[in-house]
Amino acid sequence: MPDNTVSLSLTGSVPTPEIFGQYFQQYVIEASTNLVDWFPLVTLQQTNQPTTALTFQDKAAAQSDRGFYRTHTNHFMTPLPQPIGPYAVGTFSRLLTDPSRTNAARGTNRQMMLTAWYPASSRTGLPSALFEMPQLAQDEIFWGRFVDRMPSFVSHSILNAAVSTNQMKYPVVLYAHGVNSYRFDNIDKTEELASQGYIVIALDHRDSISVLPDGSIVNGLGPVTDMVATINDRVLDFQLILEELARLSDSESLLAGHLDLEHVGAFGFLIGGSTAAELCRVDPRCKVGANIEGGFFVPAIRELGLPKPFLILRADAPDGDRKDVYEKLATDAYWVKVGKTIRWNFNLNGLVFEPTEMSRLGAPPPEEQTSGVRTSQITRAYLVAFFNKYLKNQDDHLLDGPSADYPEVMEFLKK
User: Fold this and answer.
1) 82-414 in CATH: which number?
2) For residues 186 and 176, is the Cβ–Cβ distance under 8 A?
């Protein structure tokens, strides 16, 4: 360019736009001055229905007499909106065993797959990791007709990346998935929180489908007949994680020395939201919680509420007794209801399914519904604002009242 900056133009296409057109494409751009030493420059994202080329202006190039750029030849597709926090996102998974409990579906010892997302140091040469296990991505029982796209999708996380040293320790947030689901069903939120400076931990509870390190699939899906017993079992899972994290802080683990276990929160989707609430009620280590589109099944919470800060995110549907529970919550409670949505807008389904499929599930017609991407943006903003306020003492004032930035929020309450 005339001012000696460099303008990069990137284009890409998908072979079947009728399938992949609603998703995003990633461009991981790296730069070098000598073709030997490369550093991350930027990761760009746009939809698979671009009307113009994607451009980026490297203003730092004006300070050097030479420059080189590279990106992967592969086309990286994702249904996930890009995290907007200042950190790159790292991830790893491991098998956690609890010998004190049994599970018929998982053998004599209770075995659970755990995944962590965390603020990471940027690394070169590495594309984002697949967020779906190949065995599940190709499982028609689990994904139905969407197996034509699931194996192609990547996340925004880098596998086994080093933890960012910008801070010594990061607050910890636990995530509980919906019933008959798995730990990745709200990966857009877990990645966003990691990009904002949190270590997020999720695991596959008893009522999940899970892929173990040896590639075998353990299927715990089925009817949940006792919600309270299931929630209590999930709380034990969370408490096991907290004990394990305390051990990791003193070990050679990737996260060792980076876990701020004095500032712990929890959130979940559907029954996972009730799990987060119950953990906050019974365990003093959990300081705050959030419930995304879930009910409240534990009698003590339904009758007495909670004494800790709590956020309830709701779809555009009858509230049942959720509003009654909100009224019983102590101060620092928030109610956010997003218009023209159904519950499936709030998890991975809302990002993978087409608008017509969402309408079939009960959402408004495609031209009227709040999209899964927009619902994700709204939900992520409120989760980040909430956890920042109570785990980091950082207030962006989004929780002060209704926001002009999110007119889709049809009802906002605080106390």
Assistant:
1) 3.40.50.1820
2) no
> Under a CB-based contact definition with an 8 Å cutoff, are residues 246 and 270 in contact?
no
pLDDT by residue for the chain (415 residues), tens only, comes to: 999 999 999 988 887 888 888 999 999 899 999 999 999 898 899 988 877 889 999 999 988 889 999 998 888 899 999 999 999 999 999 998 887 765 554 445 678 899 999 999 877 667 778 878 888 898 888 888 899 899 989 999 999 999 999 999 999 999 999 998 999 999 999 999 999 999 999 999 988 988 999 888 888 888 898 999 999 999 999 999 999 898 876 666 889 999 999 999 999 999 999 999 999 999 999 999 999 999 999 999 999 999 999 999 999 999 989 999 999 998 899 999 999 999 999 999 999 999 999 999 999 999 999 999 999 999 999 999 999 999 999 999 999 999 999 999 999 999 9
Dist CA 261 CA 264 (whole Å): 6
Beta bridge partners of 117: 91, 200
* Cα 330 to Cα 124, 232, 335, 380, distances in angstroms: 47, 22, 13, 23
Dihedral through CA 192, CA 196, CA 197, CA 203, nearest 10? -10
- Planar angle of CA 77, 78, 81, nearest 5 degrees: 135
- CA-to-CA dists, residue 47 to 22, 142, 201, 352, angstroms: 7, 26, 29, 13
The dihedral through the CA atoms of 148, 214, 72, 184 has a sign that is positive
